[in-house]
Amino acid sequence: MSHEPMRQEPMRQEPMRHEPMRHEPIVALWIDGSGHPVPAILAALRSAIRQDLPFREIVVLADAAAAGDLGLVVSESARPARVVVLPVEDSVVLNDLLADTTATWLAWLDASSVLVPGALKIVDPALSRFDVDLFYGDSRVGPADAHTLVRRPALSPIRLRSQDYLGDFRGARIDALRASGGFQPDTRGAHPYDATLRLGTRVDRVLAIPEVLTEAPIEPRDVVRQGTAHRTVAHLAAAKRHLSALGIEAELSDDGIRYPLRATPLVSIIIPTRGGRAVIAGSERTLVVDAVRGIAERSTYPSIEFVIVADEVMPQTVVDELIEIAGNRVRLVRWTGPFNFSGKINRGAVHALGEYLVLLNDDVELISPDWIEVMLGLAQQPGVGMVGALLYFEDGSVQHGGHMYTASWAGHIAFKWEADHDDALDSLRVDREVSGVTGACAMLSADTFWSVGGLSTEYPGNYNDVDLALKIRATGASIIWTPHARLIHFESKTRVATVDTTELALIRRHWGTRLIADPYWR
Amino acid sequence: MTEQNGGVSPAAQPNSESAHQPGASGWTGPEDQTVVSGRSLSLESQLELVNRVKSLEAELAQVTLTRQLTPTEQLSAEQQLLALRQSLPWRVGRVVTIPVRVIQRAIRRPRGR
């Protein structure tokens, strides 16, 4: 099979005279038309040609059927462009093209989207300004009268493993792309994703441009698919190869990635409680007893202990029940001071023997029996500092989808969303980086806990988890939220927030600049 | 009554200590430490100290800007600033304060000469 592409050479090489050139164009644009109808490819091509600034070159990668129509558009254009017809095995062709180009940047546009007017005018100066290897931006999808803005998060390497969230338009610095091995064989349909996995490892080398760069006039039902790349066999293969290169063992499927455990370290579940009761589903229950019973009976992870930090007011009957349920896996620790959630967790951590700690409220009920395996698999990943879970209210709506810190405030992502609701990026279906997670259910290593000083007792009731997350992130570690560990949190949706203003002022004093704009939830 | 982390949600308030149930007597054990030992307090103090250092580091980063922003954070901050300056409250504020700014400029001018 010949790998030599049919090339329609540029019709004109000179840029239009009336456009002032501030500097040489640095961005080459490749439009990926494979599998797209000709009108879509034409629209993408026209959107590129009509930019205020010129691309250094435009290459259209298309099936043979589209070549004629595209050639017509190219011939009518004042901008240099060429059409490349892709053979089945295309990595050799792409690498030839990559070797030929004289541009500094290679931008890749999937023909299901078009560039918005002025997109290059946003991208070009940003690339000239920052020393990065990869860029991507926001997009607008859906019909013009009811479009959805897809705001993409900052680089999220864990999320990237299970979801190509960068969208239809992204770019790579050409020397970095060449150095990372160019285009790989057996990756047709996932070349941009494959390149992104290799180049998207350092947050300071990746630029998420917070501007709309593309639009896709599609039906609303396709918005989610448009926001993220459709996961194909090639995508899975690329992710598998990436993880293998990192030496990470993982099981990949359409549902996401699971990280098998190489060992089963002891996990200490720290539950502060006063042994209180509440009416749930019409019957009165002792919360901590139900929580421990659910975990003891249904959790599949074999190596756990319960560290119950209890107020003196806790009835003896509760102690008896806990011991009856969990036997010698229960460790009881007394709390005698005034209420301080942080202090109680810290005391629990002092008595915990586990290599990993789970901070857990006493008003939870297990949904996923393998919740510890899921969270531990993520917590053991290099660079991960803490892991949170998907929490539901009793009525099935979402209570916690991760934390977001924005406008000097902290809140729950997806708070009160219906269980089947999601955003344009399918964010509630994937493991992803977040700014923080709730202390109602969080796992971290004991080492991490001790290295950051545990929970701050300056926050007895509120924001202790925000402070913990920000302390961990300040060390360079990330916080991961997973939808694959699910619990019910029997919190009332209707209780009125009465945040202690002292705690609010304190968190703003400590972390003010980190609370202005959330990088992962925009 | 629940024992919950305050967290950040509207349901974030811990229950008051008056949640003690009438008629319930305190528990007697068995427990890990009936009386908190010196070792336990010492370890908790260690946590407090490390936390104090981390808090001071965080505060220092706020005022000294030692934390380098990533390119993405820089662009995001600039976009927010732009949005602020284009907002109606900002523009109205600029209009409202025109007389004050004119007077300030007039006062400064002779001083500068």
Secondary structure layout:
The complex is a heterodimer of chains A (522) and B (113).
Chain A: E1 6-8, E2 27-32, H1 38-49, E3 57-62, H2 64-76, E4 81-85, H3 91-100, E5 105-110, E6 114-115, H4 119-129, E7 134-141, E8 148-150, H5 157-162, E9 169-173, H6 174-179, H7 191-199, E10 206-216, H8 223-227, H9 233-245, E11 251-253, E12 256-258, E13 267-273, E14 277-280, E15 283-286, H10 287-298, E16 304-311, H11 316-326, E17 330-335, H12 341-351, E18 356-360, E19 364-366, H13 371-379, E20 384-392, E21 398-400, E22 403-406, E23 409-412, E24 432-434, E25 441-445, H14 446-451, H15 464-474, E26 478-489, H16 501-511
Parallel strand pairs in A: 2-3, 2-5, 3-4, 7-10, 13-16, 13-18, 16-17, 20-26
Antiparallel strand pairs in A: 1-4, 5-9, 6-10, 7-8, 7-9, 11-12, 14-15, 18-25, 19-26, 20-21, 20-25, 22-23, 24-26
Helix pairs in contact in A: 1-2, 7-9, 10-11
Chain B: H1 38-64, H2 71-86, H3 88-96, H4 98-112
Summarize the structure in words.
The complex is a heterodimer of chains A (522) and B (113). Chain A is α/β, with parallel strands linked by helices and 522 residues long. Chain A contains 16 helices and 26 strands. Chain A folds into two domains: 6-228, Spore Coat Polysaccharide Biosynthesis Protein SpsA, Chain A; 267-515, Spore Coat Polysaccharide Biosynthesis Protein SpsA, Chain A. Among the domains of chain B are: 37-67; 69-113, no CATH class. Helices cover 59% and strands 0% of the residues of chain B. Chain B has helices at 38-64, 71-86, 88-96, 98-112. Chain B is elongated. At the A-B interface, strand 10, strand 13, strand 16, helix 11 and strand 17 of A face helix 1 and helix 2 of B.
